Amino acid sequence: MPEGFAVGLAVVLLLILIFLRAPIFVALAVAGVVGLLGLGGFTAVELVPLALVAQLQEYALVAAPLYILLGEALAVSGLGRDLFGAAHRWFNRVPGGLGASAIGSSTLFGAMSGVSISSVAVIGRMAVPEMLDRGYKPAFASGSVAASGALAMLIPPSLMFILYSSVTGESVADLFAGGLLPGLLLAAMMIVYVVVRAKVAPENAPRDEERFTWSERLTAVGKISPALLLIALVLGSIYTGFATPTEAAAVGALAAFAVTGVIYHKLGWQNLRHIFVSTAQVTAAVLAIVGSAFVFTQMLVVARIPDQVTGFVVGLDVSPYVVMVGIMLILVVLGCLVDAASLLLVVTPILVPAITELGFDPLWFGVLLVVNLEIAVITPPVGLNLYTMKSVVPELDLGDVFRGVAPYIAIEGVLLALLIAFPEIVTFLPGLIG
Fold first, then answer.
1. Minimal CA–CA distance to 223: which of 26, 86, 61, 428?
2. Number of domain units in the chain
3. How many secondary structure helices (H) and strands (E) does the chain include?
4. Burial, 319: exposed, middle or buried (Cβ in 10 Å; 0-12, 13-18, 19+)?
5. What range does the record give for the signal peptide (predicted)?
6. For the chain, N or C: smaller number of CB within 10 Å?
7. How far apart are CA 15 and CA 82, in angstroms?
């Protein structure tokens, strides 16, 4: 079968299966196997199991279940409530204070969990009902949480950076460092938007008349000190070279259990069962996607698609930055159709050789890719954060959630433009610790 026809058949089959709402790992695996059969018959498929095992044994992937375990342990602790309470005491006097508090809480929780839907579930369960009770518009309230939950993908420890490292071989520690400043910048941009929007259109977020003393604010900070210490322990051990990201994940998971059990007294049998079952489910889902995406990308490699894409991109008679903008636009469109992890695992082996040939830093591109994935998780019809928001606050109308995240998609676009114009925002910290 001609290579072009085999690849085209595989891509069409993938799109059909996605349209039929087949699980994404099934769609990728079936399309990949069909493509390989078309390219080389059963001989091409025979090597897939061995290659698949080798891919799943990638050392960087060991950190994934450990960070998921860390986040699940903290999710049952009640720490999310304390994070939101502390942020509320500091932001309550500014316009849209509860929205700003939700974003601040999501930023801190994202710096511990690394999984966006966990952040949306934990913070959304507390913040959105509180905002609705105080007269906030549903779109304004839900949008701030659904969008800021995606910060967990960019602020380390990020599961997406671990997956990117497993494909490209880039240092996980460098990727974590590269995502830190863009993540904090994005959080600041979101908070500024909430404050300005609430100031200009106060009907979205009625002013909070509640007063807090400095003593109450400092007490609230004291209550979240375990979270701050946990962040310092995990990230500090990585950036000082004391531990690898995988070792830091193991230590962080143990510390999360200590915080949940000793400080919050929430390690009863039911919670323990929930933590381990949920961790196993999320980890299995992630690894199933990793494996099936590898089968699909193997089909693309056999057909020499990465080489052809590289040759096409390098041969374009335009500025490399024009090419990069074009790639970003394509990724935004693809993010509306495919979930974040699958998109990363499929496009990375195709695009990284091309952008490297153009003279761009793969680490910098990795951060740009993750920002695109943040857009993907808040963009209908696939955006997982949107449906997570609806599931934890069922009284919300899904249309309000969609409308609420629209301005944040524009904010993510502005961040992408800044990172393309000023790559130093990404490369500064990795260069400092390197």
1. 86
2. 1
3. 21, 0
4. exposed
5. none
6. C
7. 43
The SS3 of residue 267 is coil
**Rounded Cα–Cα distance for residues 370 and 294 (Å):** 19
Report the C-alpha dihedral over residues 129, 132, 138, 143, rounded to 10 degrees: -50
Burial class (CB within 10 angstroms; exposed 0-12, middle 13-18, buried 19+) of 356: middle
Sign of CA dihedral 160, 163, 165, 167: negative
pLDDT of the chain along its 434 residues, tens only? 677 788 888 888 988 888 888 888 888 889 888 888 888 787 777 777 876 777 777 777 888 888 888 888 888 887 878 888 888 888 888 898 899 999 999 998 888 877 787 888 888 888 899 899 889 999 999 999 999 999 999 998 888 999 999 889 899 999 999 999 999 999 999 999 999 999 999 999 888 777 888 888 889 888 888 888 888 888 888 888 888 888 888 988 999 999 889 888 888 899 999 999 988 988 888 888 888 888 888 888 888 878 888 888 888 888 899 999 999 988 888 888 777 888 898 899 889 999 999 999 999 999 999 999 999 889 887 788 888 888 888 888 989 999 999 999 999 999 999 999 999 999 999 988 76
* Residues contacting 415, CB < 8 A, separation 6+: 182, 185, 186, 189, 371
For 81, which DSSP code?
H
Structure tokens given for 426 = 């990404």
Q: Provide CB contacts within 8 A for 331, sequence distance 6+.
A: 343, 347, 369, 372
Q: Residue 148: which of 97, 184, 103, 117 has the closest Cα?
A: 103
Q: What is the amino acid identity at position 208?
A: D
- Is the CB of residue 349 less than 8 Å from the CB of residue 301? yes
Which structure tokens are listed for 106?
Answer: 């999501």
Q: Where are the alpha helices (DSSP H) in 303-423?
A: 305-315, 320-335, 340-357, 362-377, 384-392, 398-421
How far apart are alpha carbons 306 and 285 in whole angstroms? 26
Domain that holds residue 266: 3-433
Q: Report the alpha-carbon distance of residue 426 to residue 363 in Å, rounded.
A: 8
What DSSP line would sit under 278-331, residue for residue? HHHHHHHHHHHHHHHHHHHHHHHHHTTHHHHHHHHHHH-SS-HHHHHHHHHHHH
240/314 Cα distance (integer angstroms): 38
pTM above the 0.85 mark?
A: yes
CA nearest neighbour of 116 among 67, 182, 189: 67
